[in-house]
Structure formats: structure tokens, C-alpha cells
Amino acid sequence: MLNPTKSRWFYPVTFVAAATPLALLLYNLAPLLVPLWWPDVALPWESDLGVNPAQTLIRSTGRDAFILLMASLAVTPIRRLLGWNRIQLVRRMLGVWSFVYGLAHLSSYVVFDKLGNVSEIVQDVVKRRFIFMGMFTFVILATLAATSTNGMMRRLGKRWQRLHRLVYVAAVAATVHFVWGQKADIREPLIWAAILTLLLGIRVFYLVRKVR
Question: Closest Cα partner for 104 from 61, 41, 40?
Fold first, then answer.
């Protein structure tokens, strides 16, 4: 079977693929923000964020963060099932990119939806369960991103691996956030919930087999 992870282009191509959605969002956001700072400047392209750019930004960045989180969790099952050991090279990078999109998701909510109103944000976190779950997920991702460097791995030692198992908690919390955030149609988040269950099931299977 062809193993794409053996290619020298595997890491940079994965990096570019993870960065592309953010680049496209910034490209579409520029025509809306540049005139606010430089009224005399007109960009030669128009925004494609729709009639409600704030909601488009919030939803797209949240979905991208979630997909990249799932991709990072898929690395080990793929390695075990297909024997692609070098795929582990991108696991940490995918996790960090998930945090980057999560930060963009939170920033879009704070800046464009709540206009930086701290009291409204606090009320949302307290009263709306899906907002609380989203904040809970972000705190975990921020913690994992902050401790993802080689230096932190050396400092924490064995505690590093135990800490980074919180990624599974983040994945479950993110899925719940996704489900609760839908007003009617929850088919997409339920599909992702099934994928997460499969990924976790594969890991449990190999763990049980190793113990036996």
C-alpha cells in the first residue's frame, strides 16, 4: 500500500492544508476590515462571508478547529491500522493548529458577536450550556498548546503524557459543544460523534490487547 507519510513533502503539505482555511478567512475578512482603518483604500476583491460575516467566521473557525482536533486523534489509529509510523510527525502540529482555529473561533465570538462586552460573555458562559462547554474545551486546548514544546516535555517528564491525555476530554467536550450549538439539524455533529467513538474504540482495543 502506498505510504504518503514517507514523502519528504508530507509534513509541509499537511501544514499548508491546515493553514489554508485560515488564510482564506483572512482573505475574505480583509475587504471588511481594511476600510475601517484606511477609508481611502479599496481592495480589488469582495468578501465572501455572506450576509452575516460574524456568524460565518464563528461557525467556520469552530468547525475547522473541531476537524483538526479529530485529525490529531486519528493519527495513532491510522499508525496502528496501516503501519504508517511517520504520520506521528504531524500529530502535535495538528493539535496546535486546532488550538489556533479555536482561538480564532473564540476571538470571533468575543469581538464580532459580543463586541468585547465582558459581562455579556460571562452571562453567556453561565447561562448557555453550549457556550460553557466551548469555553471548557478551549481552556484544555490552550493548556495543551502551551505545553506542546520540547522544553515543556522535558520539564514535565512523565506528567506530560498524562496531561496530554486531556485531549480526549477536549474532543468529547467539543463534540457536545457542537451538538448543543445546533438549533435543529444535528446530523453533522452526530456523524462526528460516531467518528470520535470509532477513534476512541480503536485505541481502547489496542490498549486492551496490549494489557492482555
Answer: 61
3-state secondary structure of 47: coil
User: What string of pLDDT tens digits covers the 212 residues of the chain?
Assistant: 678 888 889 999 999 999 999 999 999 999 988 888 888 888 888 888 888 999 999 999 999 999 999 999 999 999 989 989 999 999 999 999 999 999 999 999 999 899 889 999 999 999 999 999 999 999 999 999 999 999 999 998 889 989 999 999 999 999 999 999 987 788 898 999 999 999 999 988 888 888 87
- The domain total for the chain is 1
**Domain housing 48:** 4-211
Amino acid at 42: A
* Long-range CB contacts (within 8 A, 24+) of 162-168: 166/140, 167/69, 167/72, 167/73, 167/95, 167/140, 168/73, 168/200
Distance CA(196)–CA(200), nearest Å, equals 6
Q: Is the dihedral of CA 195, 199, 202, 208 positive or negative?
A: negative
Measured distance CA(133)–CA(174) in Å, rounded: 7
C-alpha cell at 132: 460553557
Q: Tell me if 194 sits within 8 A of 178, measured CB to CB.
A: no
Q: Tell me which DSSP letter residue 49 carries.
A: S
